[in-house]
Automatic annotation (TrEMBL):
SUPFAM superfamilies: P-loop containing nucleoside triphosphate hydrolases. Gene3D superfamilies: P-loop containing nucleotide triphosphate hydrolases. Keywords: GTP-binding, Nucleotide-binding. The keyword Acetylation does not apply. GO terms for molecular function: GTP binding; GTPase activity. This is Uncharacterized protein. It comes from Meloidogyne floridensis.
């Protein structure tokens, strides 16, 4: 599992790791709509251009924070589902606090690694 640097100084080095990636977990914070915009407008096109055959899972993090967010700022699951469908991505939400879907993410990731290297 590798977290990439998002700063523009790393734009030339970051893609070097894409070729060997088995799967991409495209993460954003469900309590901050700006992070979803960044994921879909910046990161998704880059991943699709540089690793077109790799599966991408759209992961909404911090789902436990949705209720603590100002109205209109959080992303509802129905909106995520529609967006993921339109972008042809699998998606799920998770929370490190409640442990929601953490095993699911790990299971999907391990499955892709197994398929890639066997």
């Amino acid at each position: 599992l590798c977290d990439t640097a998002g700063r523009s100084e790393f734009d030339t080095i970051r893609p070097l790791g894409y070729a060997d990636a088995s799967v991409f977990l495209l993460c954003f914070n469900v309590a901050k709509i700006s992070t979803l915009r960044s994921a879909t407008q910046r990161w998704l096109p880059e991943i699709r251009a540089l690793a077109p055959s790799a599966p991408i899972i759209l992961v909404g993090t911090q789902s436990d924070q949705r209720m603590n967010t100002r109205r209109g700022e959080a992303i509802e699951p129905s909106v995520m589902g529609q967006l993921a469908s339109r972008l042809q991505l699998h998606w799920l939400e998770c929370s490190a606090v409640t442990q929601q879907n953490l095993k699911t993410i790990g299971g999907n990731y391990k499955k892709e690694i197994y398929v890639k290297f066997c």
